[in-house]
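Sample A.
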Amino acid sequence: MSDSSLFSFMHDVSQDLVMIGEEIERKLYTDPFSVLVKARIYSEQLMKLIWRQEKLTEMFDISQIERLQKLSRMGIYNDDIFQKFNQIRRLGNVAAHESRPTVTVDKAIYAHRMLYDVSVWYQEVYGSVDFQPPEYRTPTAPSGIDQGKLQDIVQQTIQQVLQQELAKLGARRMDAEEITETDGDDQTVRVISLTEYLTNKKLEIIDNRKLGGALWIVGGWELNEILFPLKKMKIYFRFTSKGGRATKKRPAWYLLGKQESDPVVTIDAKTGEIILEEET
């Protein structure tokens, strides 16, 4: 097992996953068909680990999509993570139904990136609060491959991923500055940062994101009345009765996914309450 593998950060989760990740990287440019098959195996094993973390009863003959959908309904992850798992599953189906020569390197690179994303998410949610993900990188291509053409493929694939991420963020991300709008009824709408919203609710916040950790809200299940409405803006918190080291094991909620900057929240300036997406 090599520390040079991108997936070596999963060694404390599963040695099998690290080994599959290494095999994917060895074959990324030479056998994309096998990469898609292995990527699906990796994601299915990771999904089973999530299943166990959530203490769900193991069921025979349950499919990957059924696991994905159940965990989604439980609010374990947001739609972005669901879609990444599902894209890996679909790419595995592509490999199962297409001939080996028709599976191209760009699909393999795309699967590699999606595996990285869901693996980082797993560590952020279930791993150490001190976890710091490695920067994403594609493995070095073996000699004998047209480096110019390969570089174009890599850049196009990475650009595709970035465009998808920006499209999702662009629909709702703004600078975390206060913005006011007035509708026909003179109702003032404010867009504020998530941190400001939580502070206004007088919640105890422990923000370790700059240290590679999570954003925690200390409190019991009763905080769902404040945090669940945020789901309408695709901001997801998950409750754990045991808390974490950051909360000194006190019951708490933590923000799913890693945010480089605060998400934004749209509120009624008069009441301070969230204005749901379908109302704005």
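Sample B, a different protein:
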Amino acid sequence: MSPLLNNTLFENVSFSSEDFTKHYHDTYTIGLTYKGVLKSYNANQCYDSYEYSVRINNPGEVHAGKSKEWSHANFYPSIEMMSNLYEEIFGEKKIPCFERHIVENKPLFIKLHNFFDAYFKNEDEILIESLLIDALSTLILESTIYTKRYKEIFEDKRIIKDTYEFINDSIDTNFTLDALAKNVSLSKYHFLRMFKKDFGLTPHAFIINERLNRANKLIQNGIPIGEASIQVGFSDQSHYSRNFKKYFGYTPISLKRNSNIILYK
């Protein structure tokens, strides 16, 4: 598989009517709706994703959704992948940002569909990579609203960034509110208020979300689900699976059974 796509998660789900709670990814989310509808909540606004629409979430962007008979494909390109492509196009290392969560652009939809189709059919690497670059460069050229200098996720939100780094240094720790607030030199009251205001999630939801992200990366690299669950601080595999379904709308086991969803590397 193309080195561009190393450790990239893909999903291809048919007729989902599941809901998923507020969460974020440390990658982009780029997806296509083929059938049904997703009522998506992004930046405190509600959007409907219908057939032939393209869905985009920037890294660290909190979103949620309610689906009805929703058939879709997603993939999660890294910040590095998107910034490298932006640099190849414009000659400067920046992160493209897309403010329009739902993009109605049929030519872009078709390009992304052709890429997904080639990937799931395991076509030749040169074809997959060419279609990937064609689709993503079109997205960058036509839908970038603004750019940021290349930097770590959450760097423009100090409290979020410091908390992110703190929990990732010991992701399996049972964090206390006292410790989280002390880490950013705030009272518990001000920490809770400012964290929720700046990010849209509670600190507890943020920790669960980050544990899920970390576990998913371990699983993609071949670590068994049970072992990955314990490594990131879940009490057991069922605890991880319950939260996975709550946040993402399906279970890790369903990913493995639906062979057209790629979780494992």
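Observation for Sample B: The mean pLDDT is 89.
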